[in-house]
Specification:
By secondary structure, the protein is an alpha+beta fold. It is 17% helix and 43% strand. The chain has helices spanning 29-32, 64-69, 126-129, 161-166, 184-196, and strands at residues 8-18, 21-27, 40-43, 46-54, 57-62, 80-85, 104-114, 117-123, 137-140, 143-150, 154-159, 177-182. A hairpin with a 2-residue loop joins strand 4 (46-54) and strand 5.
Length: 197
């Protein structure tokens, strides 16, 4: 379980084919210092298990499901990734409950600069949009954000300068894919209501 508050930016060092999946090697200086084998690290929104630690580098194995459902299969050496270690039960919950289990992908549409802030609109599958509500929460590439507007084909978020500077969202270009995780509580409520019908 994670909070969606990115701890640091890592950088992809290599993507190595390991059919039917790949091995993702990430330069993660700060997090690698005390990482442990088997530990869960939220990597651009996706919960991945550390399979090898090599100094400042962490290695993860990505299977076919992860490659199909997330944008991690499109990563290449040099690309930045958002990193967050798992939540301790004694930690403050500054963002919202994030599982690191990606529901699907969205795509950045218009990006509007408003002074130091940026408002981003993302297209998303209808099934995911039904799990979103204005002023609710969404995780985009592992970043906990508050939804501004939700429409039939898109949703929007406002990004403050800190988020732009300290996460990969600051370097997103129009058309770029993002990993989406809708709010866990919303999913449980929706499932309960479906079952009651």
């Amino acid at each position: 379980m994670f909070t969606g508050l990115v701890e640091s930016l890592g950088r992809v060092a290599a993507v190595v084919a390991e059919p039917p999946g790949v091995r993702l090697v990430v330069e993660a200086v700060e997090i690698a210092k005390d990482a442990q084998l088997g530990e869960s690290i939220c990597t651009s929104g996706c919960c991945l298990s550390v399979v090898r630690i090599d100094g400042p580098r962490l290695e993860f194995q990505l299977g076919p499901e992860t490659l199909v459902r997330t944008s991690l299969g499109q990563l290449a050496a040099g690309r930045p990734v958002n990193l967050e270690r798992s939540l301790r039960l004694s930690d403050r919950l500054g963002g919202h409950l994030v599982t690191g289990h990606i529901d699907g992908q969205g795509r950045l549409e218009p990006r509007v600069q408003e002074g130091d802030w940026v408002t981003c609109r993302f297209s998303a599958p209808p099934a995911l949009l039904r799990q979103m509500a204005s002023k609710g929460s969404v995780a985009i590439d592992g970043v906990s954000l508050t939804l501004v507007d939700v429409n039939e084909g898109w949703f929007s978020v406002a990004l403050i300068p800190h988020t732009l500077a300290c996460t990969t969202l600051g370097s997103l270009a129009e058309g770029d894919p993002v990993n989406l995780e809708t709010d866990l509580l919303f999913k449980y409520v929706a499932r309960s209501m479906e079952a009651a019908r």
